Amino acid sequence: SGSGVSSSRQVQGTGDSSAVSKCSAAARGYIQDRFLRLLAGRRRRRAPLIHRGYYIRARAVDHCVQDFLLKTQTLPRTQILSLGAGFDSLYFRLKDMGLLHHTVVYEVDFPNVACQKAALIKRMKELSALVGDTGREGLGAITFSGEDYKLLGVDLSELSELERTLEEAGLNNEIPTLFIAEVVLAYMENTRSDALIQWAAEHFPQACFLMYEQVHPEDPFGRVMQQHFRQLSSALHSLALYPDCEAQQRRFLGKGWTECSVMDMNEFFTCCIPEDEQQRVHTLEPFDEYEEWHLKCSHYFVLAASKGMEPSWTPLLPSVTVPRHAGPVGLAGSVPAAACARLSGIPGLRRYGHHSVLIKPNLILTTGGFGEENGQHCRMRNFHVLSKHAGYWKSVCVTQNIPDKRWGERLYHTVSCLSDTLALMVGGRTSPLSAGLGMLWLKFPETSNASDPDDVAVELVSLQPAAEAAALRWRHSTTEMTFKGEQYLFVYGGRSALEPVLGDWYFLHTPDLSCTAISVEGPAPESRHSHSACSWEGGVLIAGGLGAAEQPLGSVFLLREMEHGFQWQTIETHPPLVPRYSHTAHVHEGRLLLVGGVWFHASSVPGITVIDLMTGLCLDYVINVEHLEWPLMLHNHSSVFLPNEKELLVIGGGGNCFSFGTHLNPEPVVLSLSSILISH
């Protein structure tokens, strides 16, 4: 529904496209709804990320509507008023399920939308049979009138006209009424949507209001989301005045509603959807876009407000209690971010799901990922080298001596540097259906430090069968470590085409990569992927990650060398580390630095967290991005720590922002840590 004539056509467009997306989600089994295909018009198969997004939206609305019908089932009469209903199938679904014995459904949308929908219902036997078309022709704004279904063509921003038409259609102010606004009010001017919210509270003594829309406009994902709607000429007006869930709650309580609860979609999915149903949705299609899914969910909320209801209407009570991080994260300070001016516009560094590694002090190799090459989005084949000269990084072209160009095409792999002439690439994937991609040797010419490598030779590693399983994974970690003076690589966790999360590990002896059995004691960390891993004092530090039920983890483990093997030890952090994943990590002088990532704590995005490994003290720093002209997305990025300069170089990062377009950080960013890494 729109906020005036200029953008009403664009806003209707958003309604059409959401009908098509819901229809695609139904076709894949996410939602059970046989009426969507009759109403959506065109069919188009959407991506799994879009399916999940529309699933959670449909689920949130259904959850609240069915709760309202259940709580009022003993009452003689109730009514539902769906604002900006578009081509939604709600009435037909409820009628088909036998849930409308004493409830009339009113739908309101722009006149041309209401006329189209009325014509569609009359034309489709399956739809008209359910309504029981009374044969009466629609009158004026009432485009369709059945016993328990009325379809009205009115602009929602014209409140007096809306009131007159509803009265004419038979709406009864004295009976319990549920108002539904599913991504509708955000498109209206705030004075008009506020007036509508207040009108509903003032004119209906027993009322419930269900709203689903966007939130958090100012973080990086929120900025991409806002830009998308602006480009469609259907700006989200509500976000400026009501930027978070608390503001929306205050809005309703201040406009005549006595009770109001709000949940973002991460919380709703975790708390209001039964575990077996979560599991069902997780396994419907191959899926590997966790970051974008959780970011989408933290930028949409469902709100339930009520007044005069006995007993009170509280559909958003969690069925399971999940520890919430109440209040904002306590910030110890900020870290300035600056774009690498001389690297702006360099092709090959706009990518995500890649890996960057310091080969020698002034040389960084970046491989793989998904990004932009020659104006096209694709999996990146070409390696990229950054070299530092006279204090400045510059991009160096290297030729890849590689038997098969596709070998380098992979996401979520690792690269470990074994010497300044040899590195090892482990695992990764092409599509989420792929079985994992084995290992590659990367060999650099033996030249003096002064000159840049002009070529990298790439060779397939022939692994012994015992070590093969170590390579068939992605979103894992590979860490250099020592045991009894010998060098090993420790491959841990990740996921595979068969297992959504892995908790196993391998010790690979270098350089022959033979799989070595070394005893490990102590309780093993729970399975995870997208965690971080760093070498420390001969052992390995594992932090965060995404666990079995797609829930972020806040644990930190040390795999510590003992006399006859290793032992897992938990590092207690205080305050407790906010659970996160898709971050990067570095160790410096007894401190673990976690960079970026994704967490469910919606009031801010992760910056840099510093954990003192001796005391467990955990400090969060926000990243000051005022000098960047674009949103900095710190997930699926890579980072390189430069200890002499006390700087972090962040390369790439970003991803597919739901249906709002792909955002790739355009250039590397330097984070200056000198103020937070003052020596002990």
From TrEMBL:
Similarity section: Belongs to the methyltransferase superfamily. LCMT family.
Pathway: tRNA modification; wybutosine-tRNA(Phe) biosynthesis
Keyword list, A-Z: Methyltransferase, S-adenosyl-L-methionine, Transferase, tRNA processing
Name of the protein in its database record: tRNA wybutosine-synthesizing protein 4
GO BP of this protein: tRNA methylation; wybutosine biosynthetic process
Gene: Lcmt2
Keyword Lipid biosynthesis: no
Organism per entry: Vireo altiloquus (Black-whiskered vireo)
Assembly behavior: Interacts with RNF144B/IBRDC2.
